[in-house]
Structures are given as C-alpha cells and as structure tokens.
Write a structure and sequence with these properties.
The longest helix has about 40 residues. The strands form 2 sheets. A 7-stranded mixed β-sheet has the order 1-4-5-9-8-7-6, sandwiched between helices. It has a two-stranded antiparallel ribbon with strand order 2-3. The termini are far apart. It is built from 13 helices and 9 strands. Bound molecules: 2-{3-[(4-chloropyridin-2-yl)amino]phenoxy}-N-methylacetamide.
Length: about 350
Amino acid sequence: MAQPELDRLKAELIEAIAAARDLAQLDEVRVKALGKKGRVSELMQTLGAMPPEKRKSFGQAVNALKTSVSEALDARHQVLAGAALVEKLASDRADISLPVREGPLAEGRIHPVSQVTDEITEIFADMGFSIAEGPDIETDFNNFTALNIPPEHPARQDHDTFYLPAAADGSRAVLRTHTSPVQIRTMLVQKPPLRIIAPGRVYRCDSDQTHTPMFHQVEGLVIDEQTHLGHLKWVLEEFAKAFFEVPKVKMRFRASYFPFTEPSMEVDIGWNRRTGELGKGGDWLEILGSGMVHPRVLANCGIDPREWQGFAWGMGVERIAMLKHGMTDLRPFFESDIRWLRHYGFSPLAPTMLHEGV
Ligand code: 2NL
C-alpha cells in the first residue's frame, strides 16, 4: 500500500471519528480502526511479508497513521464524554422533596403484649420490686401443690392444664397455668423480705372468643413481717393510676376466692360505659385478682407463717391491654396480621407515657 492510499484511509477514519454522534458509536469506530482485526492492525500484519528496505518506511508510515487516528479518537472522546455529562446533569435531577424512606426502627411495631408487660413491670420496678422469671414447663408441686391446690382439689379442673407425658417415676410435668410457680421458686430459695414481680407466658387448654391456649400474666408478691391488706390496696391503687394514666382512680375490692390467698379479693376500676373513660364512672371493670398469701403456701415454701405474712396478685396482660386500648377481640393478638399490628402496635421510637397521670 502506497502513501496516497494510507492518506485516504486516514481521511476516511478521521471522517468516521468526526461523524460519531456518541461514545458508543465512537467505540465502534475505534474497534474498526485499531482493534485486533481493525484496518490499521491489518496493515501492521502485512509488514512481515515485506522486503526489509520497504518495511522500515512503511512501518513508520503506518505508525504515524495509528498515532493520528489515536489522537483523533481521544479528542472526539473528550468532546462526546463532556456532552454526555452535560446531558446527564440536565436530565438526572435528585428530587430532594422526596420523603426519606423509613427504616426498620421507624416502621417496626412493638406488640401490645410486649408493650403492656413492659409498662406493668416498669411501674412495679419503680416501686422497688425485682423481676423474677422461671420455666414454662413446671413441676406439679410448683404449679399446684405448693399453692394449696392438692391433687384432689377442684381448682385443678378449673385450670384446664396441659400435661406432659408421665416420667418413669410417674410424675407428670405441666405447662404452667399461671406465673405463681415463679414466686414459689423464689420463696423456696430466697429469704424474706421479698418484693417480686413475675411476668410471662402461661397455658390453659381452652380456646374460644375470649380464651387462647397461651396467654400472658404478671403476678406480684410481697413478703414481710408486718405487711397487710392496706399495703396491698395502696400498691394496686398506685399501679392503676400509673398504668391507666389517670390522677385519681375509683376502685372496688370485691371478696373472692383463690386457694392460695386468704382473704381473696378481685379488683375493679370505675368505667364510664358511654365515654369509655377508665378510672371513673358508674360501671365497673375487673382488672386483677389478689389477696393475702395463704399461711399454708408460706409453710409449703419453708417460710414460717407465724413470722412472715404477705400479699399477692395476678393479672392477665391481654385482658388489661384490651381494657386500656379499647380492643374488643382477643384472637388477633396471636394472628400476626400486619394490619392489626400496624394499628395496635407501639412505635419503638415513641417516648414512654408512663406516670403521666401521677
Ligand atoms: C387472677 C388471680 C392471683 C395470686 C394470683 C399468688 C402467688 C403466690 C401466692 C399467693 Cl406464690 N398468690 N398469686 C394471688 C391472687 C390472685 O391471680 O385472676 N389472675 C389473672
């Protein structure tokens, strides 16, 4: 190939470079010219077959062509890249008015059972109670016998107990039907005075509109030398004011029966059926059961009832959550329906509202 042909090729390639409208087209031109099988590379490959005297000058000419084409490609690349950037800046706008998408901490919700358990526990913790926990699978002694519910006692039937298969010695473990066994365990290993609160899951073989086979309780226990019914009433009144966030609460202590307390009392708070207000009004809502610890229960736990006395109470977490938050149905607590959770769940970022009314 002679110089005029090389010049023509150069002109042709330079024209193609100038004609490239964008970076993709320019790259096509680059590959066709300088790529492995491109026009310039093809010329380079012909060098080997040339006589040495021609090879040198032709090689220099092809190299010059290659340099010119490379420079033209670079220059065009700069122009096209600049134009591409200008276009991107013009079209690619960040919409800074777009709201930030909420992360898991803002979008997740705390289940009402967790929220209400924490609120109850915190109120008693503020009064000086310690939190005690125990296993869901209990011995028959801790769940029943120690609590003055011997094997033939009719209250065993009321509890609708889930029994585990009998062990080799004939003993049968149970799913605890209340969190009282946690208090029994504490009394068996700690010396009084005691002030403990026992939150947790409990199980009863019962399932309908108002009962689920698993639910939650918080129980409380005070053991001291002189502690009496007046202390029980004060503690529960302070609790009701803090929990229901009211400065005053109308309360009623109604005589009742539990095998593990004597006397036993159910506690109601005032309720205005029309407005839904809690703490006042002409109607009553039961919130918990309570009483003075039965002397036999103390004796069963190695505590001398002539030296010590105490009071205890127990409340259902779902029930008290429903009262506070105007929920009408128990079942959605355990259905994991995201719409219910969004509606009734609590934001982890919301400040706590405890003691507002106190
Ligand atoms: C209720 C009633 C109650 C207790 C629980 C208790 C525990 C010990 C000794 C004596 Cl170790 N009592 N707990 C006392 C009275 C009532 O619960 O209706 N709960 C939902």
